[in-house]
Design goal:
The protein is built from 21 helices and 13 strands. The protein is α/β, with parallel strands linked by helices. α5 crosses α6. The chain is rod-shaped and about 150 Å long. The relative contact order is 0.11.
Length: 523
């Protein structure tokens, strides 16, 4: 049964990982934006109250019932447009003037139209008049005044329409002769005139207040809770956008899965970040710590690689300078030696050699001396105790006396060939046949030869050395190595003749993460 996560699940996990990696950006963004928005709302916003009154707009049809035709505007087939027009008329100049006169000094010089809004209630023939002010009583009075004055204005307007309708009827009646007055025409016109007079007496403007505005007991604004929630969700959107913007523009490798998705080689070990003291190596300074445990994991994983072929020499390089290749070589050598392996370390970085400093060795004689013919391999070997570094220079008789790789204090020693004096042509030296001979001769005496090579992007030296060893390991440093350098790693893997065993990740997450991933336990 295949339990491999689907691509969608993997992508989701990666996105969660991105957010978790930038969790402080998210937390700070949400906290700052939400706090500032809520605080500003409470401090700088004036407390406001809202009150609303509702007017029912209806067509009674009395005009059609009394006189047989419509005198007033009829909503007909466009009731929404009719109500929208009515909403505009609520705040017409005539109504505004009436409200201002009605409330007088209570307004305190305010323009009432700036304090009111009119809306149409959905799915109902109702106009909702809402007034807003810091005084809840004034807000209610304004809403009610607009409702009352709008209805009064509509009644007056409709009354004027009715009076206008009487004029032609009265004119026709006045022009009738005495012989016509008892006739049917006179009676019809007179009935219409009386109906119009009746309409005037019962005119309501087809409007009725269904809800009076009352002073509000709680403010409509500010609403800190609502503002806080809106700010919270807005800040989340902002924070996630910022996180993924940072991630897209980030040129450094931040997680191991960024390596495994781009490079088809296993991660042999993840070395936790640690702070060296007095230049000492982690495996010597803290042999029971998580860093030393990580190098033991690396040693174990190397024993599983290429079981059907004998690997006698391994080159260790990195994508970029300062990724930790030299410290990886030194700590791995110590770990292998403590495991009973006979190890020779060769400084192959003739541009910026550092192994002599890390191992506290004399760099007066080394690779360049052997290449020039001024020394040989045995004369240039320096011995190091894996248990405790000691600068013991072994030459000729002393090497043979100790029976090369004999036990010192019951442990296997490490032998190292430093760079020697820096040459003017390091690329030519590491590409020479003499370099091949040095590595091959060292492999005759040792269980494993470790070669510290220059970074891939610094020069072609690593490629030259790779042609002279059995295998290679590449070091990548989290939060330091550029993502584009993974392309250089893939190119290196594709072109070199030796087997690239995998990668070592340095500056990995700390102690707790390491225990979780590798099962490290306190003794």
């Amino acid at each position: 049964m295949d339990i491999t996560p689907s691509r969608g699940v993997k992508e989701f996990r990666e996105q969660i990982g991105v957010i978790w990696r930038h969790k402080w950006l998210v937390i700070l963004s949400v906290f700052i934006i939400t706090t500032v928005a809520t605080g500003a709302t409470m401090i700088f916003s004036t407390t406001q109250y809202q009150s609303s009154t509702e007017i029912l707009q209806q067509d009674s049809g009395i005009d059609r019932a009394l006189i047989g035709s419509s005198i007033f505007q009829n909503p007909g087939d466009q009731p929404e447009r009719y109500l929208d027009t009515a909403a505009e008329l609520v705040v017409s100049p005539n109504v505004n003037a009436a409200v201002s006169k009605d409330l007088g000094s209570q307004l305190g010089g305010k323009n009432p139209s700036s304090l009111v809004s009119v809306s149409v209630v959905s799915q109902a023939d109702i106009l909702k008049i809402t007034a807003t002010d810091h005084d809840p009583k004034l807000a209610a009075d304004i809403a009610n005044s607009y409702a009352n004055n709008y209805i009064a204005w509509r009644r007056q307007s409709d009354g004027a329409i009715l009076k206008q309708a009487e004029v032609p009827i009265q004119a026709q009646l006045a022009n009738m002769t005495p012989d016509q007055t008892p006739g049917s025409a006179y009676n019809t016109l007179n009935d219409k005139l009386q109906s119009l007079k009746m309409l005037q007496s019962i005119q309501t403007g087809n409007l009725e207040i269904v809800n009076q505005a009352v002073p509000a007991t709680s403010p409509s604004s500010p609403k800190p809770v609502r503002t806080g929630l809106l700010a919270f969700f807005s800040s989340l959107v902002f924070a996630f956008g910022a996180v993924f913007t940072v991630e897209v523009t980030d040129k450094r490798i931040r997680q191991s899965n960024e390596i495994t998705t781009r490079v088809e080689k296993p991660i042999l070990a993840s070395i936790p970040a640690y702070r060296a003291r007095d230049g000492q190596l982690e495996t010597l300074l803290n042999p029971a710590g998580p860093g030393s445990e990580a190098f033991r994991v690396l040693k174990t994983n190397l024993s599983y690689m290429e079981p059907d072929s004998e690997i006698k020499s391994i080159m260790i390089s990195s994508a970029e300078p300062n990724d930790g290749k030299s410290t990886t070589v030194a700590n791995l050598a110590i770990t292998l030696a403590r495991g009973g392996k006979k190890i020779i370390v060769i400084e192959g970085d003739l541009r910026r050699p550092v192994l002599a400093d890390y191992l506290d060795l004399n760099n007066s004689s080394g690779i360049t001396n052997i290449i020039s013919g001024n020394s040989n391999l045995r004369e240039s070997l320096q011995i190091i105790e894996a248990q405790e570094l000691s600068n013991q220079n072994l030459i000729n008789d002393s090497v043979e006396t100790n029976q090369l790789f004999g036990g010192l204090n019951g442990t296997k020693p490490i032998y190292c060939v430093t760079s020697g004096p820096l040459p003017p042509n390091p690329g030519e030296i590491v590409a020479s046949e003499k370099m091949s001979t040095i590595i091959a001769d060292a492999a005759k005496y040792a269980d494993l030869v470790l070669v510290d090579a220059p970074p891939l992007i610094a020069a072609a030296d690593a490629t030259s050395i790779a042609a002279r060893v059995d295998a290679a390991i590449l070091v990548v440093k989290l939060d330091a190595t550029a993502k584009k350098s993974l392309g250089a790693i893939n190119d290196f893997i594709a072109t070199v003749p030796c087997k690239v065993l995998g990668l070592v990740v340095t500056n990995a997450p700390g102690f707790n993460s390491y225990k979780k991933n590798y099962g490290y336990y306190d003794a």
